Amino acid sequence: MGGAPSQAAGGGCATAHGDIDFSDAHVGDPAIDLAWALRGASPAFARAVAAEYGAAPELAERALLWHRLGPWHEVAHGLDTGDPDTARSGLEGILARLPA
Questions:
Q1: pTM score, whole prediction
Q2: Cα(72)–Cα(59) distance, rounded to whole angstroms?
Q3: Average of pLDDT values for 86-92?
């Protein structure tokens, strides 16, 4: 079984195996998974991900819509927990992601 390389205690190289949990696993729109990678990361990273994934323009457009929805979760969490700073941060994110 292969895995991603990681640093082990003591500076040696080890291989990570397994997943912590699958509670969020589901069959859904891959645009959700690509939303940040295509729209929130640096342009160079986004281009590399899109090229490697083979992202069609329609998928990239859906990723943009999911990316714009992201800050709404932060607003809801701030309101649910009574944390005005988190809600305010989410509102700032919403405004920053609105189309020009």
A1: 0.66
A2: 21
A3: 97
